[in-house]
Design goal:
alpha/beta; two-stranded antiparallel ribbon; 18 helices; 55% helix; elongated
């Protein structure tokens, strides 16, 4: 008997070690996709000769626009008047017609600038837009000086084309708030809802606009805002815009529900169609004295310029009927895969895909009950109990993440919301849940069959999908895909080797969720410990399938007697 028990303990220990290695392999899969996404999101490399030339020309234009001292130039200031004069000179030197459109707000004189690139006029004007004022704290090399310089570089490229459509460049004043409690977007509002509305050079035509802005000073530009009926415009974007193209209906939907806005929000509310791009990496320099040319990434300048040039070329190739379809389209669900491939389909499909997931879940639940010889009701009770336990763990970890971020702020480790190296500091919200969930799963899931765990996660994903279709429809695809994916693997888990099955079921979630986590950290910063830990916990839950099921090395005690 002692020898038999030693064999049992040895088998259990070996199986537990295999499970540990399997879990670490699943976690490594997530980390691998996260690292790939992080590399892709840096933007174009400046190593090629073409990119080096684009970067040099764009940054040279930016240097001429900013004062030698790189002073701030908020709307209405004398420094901004000088910036306006330098910008107008660059435009007229290219042979463009640049018109100043003055307006007054709060007794402060400001001026929008509209420039025309001559070409074929169509039913829908093609407009490129950004703002040229800075905040009152810094010179605004990224926000939005590099955007201005990129549009001037695009105009210079356009003027060399023989066959081109007419394009308009809008440079608004007063986008930044003069004080914390004051309103921004003053130039765009004056343009479309003020005294300048009747003097727009394209009359009552409805434009397609490509807007550029920055909330950081490095990385690639994200396509994070569109109009509501965006299926055709996003299909167009996937065809004509350079890679990386980082976008999703989730970020579009999230931004649409935030109280703050950009100039593009004003354009969109006026019925314009289009795309809004912005930087979100390097947010520690946003609205800071450190927003200088020296700290600006060359890759970001390259990406902005290449986006503008590619958009101008692609839009110029469309006739009126093709642009009409862009304006008369339907809402879309879309997301990128590591910035290279864009998946896009009508948003109305999400409800049908959710229905497919529910039917698949019902089939898998019936099959699970049949395998165990129990009832469907018994299987459901087990799933609910398991889901409640997972929900408690996620809630506890989210609370710990929130308290941890508060501690870092109070202790001085995090003096403000965004700090240099904050992205790496935020990784504690990933690894802390990882270790705790590993410990919890090793003891809780050992007697839970892998198929049951995956079925529980399928149910959780489908419930979340239903909630998101109501509250955040643009992001429901993440939960719908998870519900279907885990349902399929629940059904086939008994036919797959344990290691192969667990790794396979981790691939798609890692591909979709790891890049989402990277963007979330960049957007929120380490001060948002609660939300980041919540998302990290949800992302890591599927990896716990490595611990589900009886350990493969177990020896049945009944066979020892």
């Amino acid at each position: 008997m002692p020898r038999q028990h030693d064999e049992l303990n040895t088998g259990n220990l070996a199986a537990a070690r295999r499970q540990d290695r399997l879990w670490w392999l699943c976690l490594a899969t997530y980390l691998l996709f996260g690292v790939i996404a992080r590399i892709q999101y840096r933007g174009p490399s400046s190593t090629s000769q073409d990119n080096q030339q684009i970067a040099q020309r764009t940054l040279d234009r930016l240097s001429l626009l900013l004062s030698p001292e790189q002073n701030s130039h908020p709307g209405g200031s004398s420094e901004n008047v000088l910036f306006q004069q330098r910008l107008t000179k660059q435009l007229t030197d290219l042979g463009l017609e640049a018109t100043a459109m003055p307006f007054e707000t709060d007794e402060v004189a400001m001026s929008n600038i509209i420039a025309r690139v001559p070409g074929r006029a169509g039913r829908h004007p093609i407009v490129f837009a950004t703002h040229y004022d800075s905040c009152r704290f810094g010179p605004g090399a990224a926000d939005a000086g590099v955007c201005v310089a990129s549009l001037v570089e695009m105009a210079a490229e356009l003027m060399t084309w023989q066959d081109r459509s007419e394009c308009w460049l809008i440079f608004t004043d007063g986008e930044e708030r003069p004080q914390d409690n004051a309103e921004g977007l003053r130039g765009a509002i004056a343009l479309l809802a003020g005294e300048q509305t009747e003097n727009l050079p394209w009359g009552d035509k409805v434009p397609f606009v490509v807007s550029l802005d920055a909330r950081g000073n490095r990385g690639c530009a994200l396509l994070y805002e569109t109009d509501i009926h965006n299926l055709a415009s996003m299909q167009l974007a996937t065809r004509i815009l350079p890679r990386p193209l980082v976008t999703s209906s989730l970020m579009v939907n999230v931004y649409r529900q935030l109280p703050n806005g950009t100039d593009f929000t004003v354009y969109k509310n006026a019925g314009w169609s289009g795309w809004n791009f912005a930087l979100i990496d390097g947010t520690e320099h946003y609205h800071q004295p450190s927003d200088t040319i020296e700290n600006l990434s060359q890759g970001s300048a390259i990406h902005f310029a290449k986006i503008a040039i590619a958009a101008a070329r692609g839009l110029s190739e469309l006739d009126d009927q093709q642009l009409d379809r862009v304006f008369n389209s339907t809402p879309a669900t879309f997301f990128d895969l590591l910035g290279q491939l864009i998946v896009i389909y009508p948003a109305s499909w999400d409800k049908w895909l959710l229905l497919v997931g529910i039917v698949l879940f019902a089939v898998c639940l019936q099959a699970a009950a049949k395998r165990t010889g129990g009832s469907v009701a018994r299987e459901l009770r087990q799933l609910v109990f398991l889901l409640l336990q997972m929900a408690v763990q996620v809630a506890l970890l989210s609370a710990v993440g929130y308290l941890l971020s508060k501690f870092m702020q109070v202790s001085g480790l995090l003096p403000r919301r965004f700090v240099p190296g904050g992205e790496w500091l935020a990784q504690v919200y990933l690894f802390a849940p990882s270790l705790w969930m590993c410990i919890w799963a090793k003891y809780r899931l050992v007697n839970v069959p892998t198929s049951t765990f995956l079925l529980a996660f399928s149910a959780a994903s489908l419930l979340l999908a239903g909630l998101m279709l109501w509250l955040l429809p643009g992001g429901a695809y993440l939960a719908i895909v998870g519900g279907i994916w885990f349902g399929i693997h629940s059904y086939f888990s008994r036919h797959l080797p344990t290691a192969g099955g667990v790794i396979l079921q981790s691939l798609l979630p890692a591909l979709l969720l790891a890049p989402t986590f990277v963007l979330l950290v960049l957007a929120l910063g380490p001060a948002a410990g609660g939300p980041i830990t919540l998302v990290a916990s949800l992302i890591l839950l599927p990896t716990l399938a490595a611990f589900a099921g009886q350990p493969a090395g177990n020896i049945d005690p009944k066979r020892l007697h």
